[in-house]
Amino acid sequence: MSFEPTRAQVNELYTRLKNEAEGSGYHLHPDVEFTKWLVRGILINEARYGYWNCPCRRATNNKQADLDIICPCDYRDPDLNDYDACYCALYVSTKILKGEKEAMPIPERRPAPELRAQNAEHRAQEGIGNLNYPVYRCRVCGYLCARNEPPEVCPICKAKKERFKRFI
User: Fold this and answer.
1) Domain Rubredoxin-like: where (predicted)?
2) pTM for the full model?
3) Omega of the bond leading into 113 within 30 degrees of 0 (cis)
Protein backbone atom coordinates (compact mmCIF):
# COMPACT_ATOMS: atom_id res chain seq x y z
CA MET A 1 0.00 0.00 0.00
CA SER A 2 1.44 3.37 -0.93
CA PHE A 3 1.46 6.40 1.34
CA GLU A 4 -0.34 9.56 0.27
CA PRO A 5 0.28 12.62 2.46
CA THR A 6 -2.68 14.73 3.47
CA ARG A 7 -3.07 18.32 2.33
CA ALA A 8 -2.43 19.38 5.94
CA GLN A 9 0.87 17.43 6.05
CA VAL A 10 2.01 18.98 2.77
CA ASN A 11 1.02 22.48 3.90
CA GLU A 12 2.77 22.02 7.26
CA LEU A 13 6.04 20.86 5.69
CA TYR A 14 5.82 23.52 2.98
CA THR A 15 5.50 26.24 5.62
CA ARG A 16 8.36 24.78 7.64
CA LEU A 17 10.66 24.52 4.61
CA LYS A 18 9.76 28.02 3.43
CA ASN A 19 10.49 29.52 6.86
CA GLU A 20 13.77 27.59 7.18
CA ALA A 21 14.83 28.53 3.66
CA GLU A 22 14.08 32.23 4.08
CA GLY A 23 15.71 32.23 7.51
CA SER A 24 18.88 30.82 5.98
CA GLY A 25 19.09 33.02 2.88
CA TYR A 26 17.49 30.51 0.49
CA HIS A 27 14.25 30.65 -1.49
CA LEU A 28 11.70 28.03 -2.45
CA HIS A 29 10.31 28.02 -5.99
CA PRO A 30 7.71 30.81 -6.29
CA ASP A 31 5.09 28.52 -7.90
CA VAL A 32 3.44 27.33 -4.68
CA GLU A 33 1.52 24.42 -6.26
CA PHE A 34 4.69 23.13 -7.97
CA THR A 35 6.62 23.47 -4.73
CA LYS A 36 3.92 21.66 -2.75
CA TRP A 37 4.06 18.85 -5.33
CA LEU A 38 7.80 18.51 -4.56
CA VAL A 39 7.10 18.66 -0.80
CA ARG A 40 4.59 15.84 -1.30
CA GLY A 41 7.41 13.82 -2.89
CA ILE A 42 9.65 14.44 0.12
CA LEU A 43 6.90 13.17 2.45
CA ILE A 44 6.32 10.09 0.29
CA ASN A 45 10.06 9.36 0.29
CA GLU A 46 10.19 9.81 4.06
CA ALA A 47 7.39 7.26 4.48
CA ARG A 48 9.04 4.91 2.00
CA TYR A 49 12.69 5.16 3.12
CA GLY A 50 12.63 6.81 6.52
CA TYR A 51 14.51 9.91 5.32
CA TRP A 52 13.94 12.96 3.14
CA ASN A 53 15.34 11.73 -0.12
CA CYS A 54 15.23 14.44 -2.79
CA PRO A 55 11.94 14.17 -4.66
CA CYS A 56 13.83 14.28 -7.97
CA ARG A 57 16.26 11.41 -7.39
CA ARG A 58 15.92 7.68 -6.88
CA ALA A 59 16.99 6.48 -3.44
CA THR A 60 18.63 3.13 -2.71
CA ASN A 61 16.88 2.61 0.64
CA ASN A 62 20.36 2.75 2.20
CA LYS A 63 20.60 6.00 4.14
CA GLN A 64 24.40 5.95 4.24
CA ALA A 65 24.60 5.56 0.46
CA ASP A 66 21.99 8.29 -0.02
CA LEU A 67 23.38 10.92 2.37
CA ASP A 68 24.30 13.17 -0.57
CA ILE A 69 20.69 13.24 -1.82
CA ILE A 70 18.84 13.79 1.44
CA CYS A 71 16.99 17.05 0.95
CA PRO A 72 18.47 19.61 0.83
CA CYS A 73 21.02 17.59 -1.12
CA ASP A 74 24.76 18.20 -1.41
CA TYR A 75 24.25 19.48 -4.94
CA ARG A 76 21.79 22.28 -4.09
CA ASP A 77 24.36 25.03 -3.60
CA PRO A 78 26.51 24.30 -6.66
CA ASP A 79 23.33 24.06 -8.76
CA LEU A 80 22.07 27.38 -7.36
CA ASN A 81 25.43 29.01 -8.10
CA ASP A 82 25.66 27.66 -11.65
CA TYR A 83 22.01 27.43 -12.75
CA ASP A 84 19.97 29.55 -10.28
CA ALA A 85 17.99 26.47 -9.19
CA CYS A 86 18.64 23.08 -7.68
CA TYR A 87 18.09 19.94 -9.76
CA CYS A 88 14.36 19.69 -9.00
CA ALA A 89 13.92 23.49 -8.64
CA LEU A 90 12.66 23.27 -5.06
CA TYR A 91 15.32 25.85 -4.16
CA VAL A 92 15.86 28.81 -6.48
CA SER A 93 17.95 31.97 -6.66
CA THR A 94 16.70 35.49 -6.02
CA LYS A 95 16.58 36.03 -9.80
CA ILE A 96 14.06 33.22 -10.23
CA LEU A 97 12.13 34.26 -7.13
CA LYS A 98 11.72 37.78 -8.53
CA GLY A 99 10.74 36.51 -11.99
CA GLU A 100 13.90 37.87 -13.65
CA LYS A 101 14.82 34.38 -14.82
CA GLU A 102 13.00 31.04 -15.27
CA ALA A 103 14.13 27.74 -13.81
CA MET A 104 15.42 25.55 -16.61
CA PRO A 105 16.40 21.86 -16.72
CA ILE A 106 19.96 21.39 -15.52
CA PRO A 107 22.43 18.51 -15.84
CA GLU A 108 22.69 15.88 -13.14
CA ARG A 109 25.67 16.57 -10.90
CA ARG A 110 25.54 13.42 -8.81
CA PRO A 111 28.29 10.98 -9.82
CA ALA A 112 27.43 7.43 -10.87
CA PRO A 113 27.31 4.88 -8.01
CA GLU A 114 30.69 3.38 -8.94
CA LEU A 115 32.37 6.78 -8.87
CA ARG A 116 30.72 7.69 -5.54
CA ALA A 117 32.11 4.47 -4.04
CA GLN A 118 35.60 5.20 -5.41
CA ASN A 119 35.50 8.77 -4.07
CA ALA A 120 34.41 7.58 -0.61
CA GLU A 121 37.19 4.98 -0.57
CA HIS A 122 39.77 7.58 -1.63
CA ARG A 123 38.63 10.05 1.06
CA ALA A 124 38.84 7.30 3.70
CA GLN A 125 42.36 6.28 2.60
CA GLU A 126 43.55 9.88 2.63
CA GLY A 127 41.94 10.57 5.99
CA ILE A 128 39.93 13.36 4.41
CA GLY A 129 36.56 12.25 5.72
CA ASN A 130 33.56 14.02 4.26
CA LEU A 131 34.98 17.55 4.22
CA ASN A 132 35.74 17.85 0.53
CA TYR A 133 34.73 21.50 0.16
CA PRO A 134 36.50 24.75 0.98
CA VAL A 135 35.35 26.51 4.15
CA TYR A 136 34.04 30.09 3.96
CA ARG A 137 33.74 32.50 6.89
CA CYS A 138 31.30 35.38 7.16
CA ARG A 139 33.41 38.43 7.98
CA VAL A 140 30.46 40.00 9.80
CA CYS A 141 29.45 37.32 12.32
CA GLY A 142 32.02 34.52 11.89
CA TYR A 143 29.61 31.90 10.54
CA LEU A 144 31.52 29.03 8.84
CA CYS A 145 30.26 26.87 5.99
CA ALA A 146 31.92 24.12 3.94
CA ARG A 147 30.83 24.36 0.30
CA ASN A 148 32.13 25.32 -3.12
CA GLU A 149 30.76 28.87 -2.87
CA PRO A 150 29.53 30.93 0.05
CA PRO A 151 25.73 31.28 0.44
CA GLU A 152 23.88 34.19 -1.19
CA VAL A 153 23.01 35.44 2.30
CA CYS A 154 24.52 34.52 5.68
CA PRO A 155 21.93 32.45 7.58
CA ILE A 156 23.00 34.09 10.86
CA CYS A 157 23.44 37.82 10.21
CA LYS A 158 21.98 38.13 6.67
CA ALA A 159 25.21 39.59 5.22
CA LYS A 160 25.51 39.24 1.43
CA LYS A 161 27.74 36.69 -0.33
CA GLU A 162 30.45 39.32 -0.89
CA ARG A 163 31.06 39.50 2.87
CA PHE A 164 32.38 35.91 2.96
CA LYS A 165 36.07 35.05 2.72
CA ARG A 166 37.65 31.67 2.14
CA PHE A 167 38.82 30.39 5.52
CA ILE A 168 40.33 26.98 4.64
Assistant:
1) 133-167
2) 0.76
3) no
